[in-house]
Amino acid sequence: MNDWQRKSPLDWEKYVNKMVKVAAIEKHEYEGWVLTVDPVSASVVLATFLENEKVSISVVLGHAVQEVEILKEGDDEMKQRLSCIFAPEEGKAYSPEELEKRKNDLKTWLETNHIPVTEQGESGRTLCVVGVLTIDPPYGPEECSSSNEIILSRIQGLIQGYL
Amino acid sequence: MPVPVPVGVLRLPRGPEGSSRGFSPTSPRFQALLGEPAAAQGLRAALRERYLRGLGAARGRPARFCLRAGVCVEAVFGAADVGAVAFQVDALRTPLGVQAAALLRCTDVLAYSFLLD
Q: Which residue positions does the secretion signal occupy (chain A) (predicted)?
């Protein structure tokens, strides 16, 4: 493990939204705006804005990083631009009645398939499946969360087939 | 009341780390889980979330991987694993031909890049 990989998230965060030059092993050099540093591998994710409105993303793996030099600070406009690059897409907006109906339809369908499901959270908006998986509005496969990967993929597959 | 039908459990083989947790218990990440100040944990989570979204954005896109000794290969980005051990790619272009699917070890990869629209 090298010095860069040994840094803490507090250190890595100082490089985010800055224009940097990354010196890597075998004399490689990379320049770009830091989008993030992966805490697991210490990989540096850089963005370079090209002339044709496209963005080039380069990821330098943590084990290959020798030195990171800050060249420039990003202003608010750049920070905004960088945060939008990987932003999740906006979903379709449902009304409260539509959401309630979707929730009840899904709950009924799960119960018909002998899958234990309860409602929890404020005004029962979250469905809790088998006690380990939760489904938030609007109750699609993407809104399922669980710490158990196997149950997560099974239930996601079921909901995908149902919708 | 109907008796719930038990869900079959799939027993997966042990992962490359041998502990089959998907990550090493001695890694800084796991050590941090045991006792890290809340502020650092929040930062760790935010940094990781951005990185994972980046991986999601890379899926299915043509990418260029820079390996050791000046070797560069082109492939379509598939996936990365939890412990940063390997990358899965499709249509890997090698001097011997195109491999439909392949694994690139993270220790062999120095950097990779792809274009976003």
A: none
Tell me the C-alpha distance between A63 and A47, whole Å.
20
Kindly determine whether residue A38 and residue B47, on different chains, have CB atoms separated by under 8 Å.
yes
Going A17 to B67 to B45 to B53, the CA torsion angle's sign is positive
β-sheet bridge partners, residue A117: A129
Q: Which helix (H) or strand (E) holds A44?
A: strand A44-49
**Inter-chain contact B47–A61, Cβ cutoff 8 Å?**
no
pTM: 0.69
Residue A107 distance to chain B (closest CA, Å): 15
Give the helix/strand (H/E) hosting A36: strand A29-37
CB contact under 8 A, B111 and A28: yes
Which of A40, A51, A156 is best to mutate for the B interface (most B CBs within 10 A)? Answer: A40
Helices (H), chain A: 3-6, 9-13, 76-85, 96-112, 149-162
Res A11: pLDDT:
93
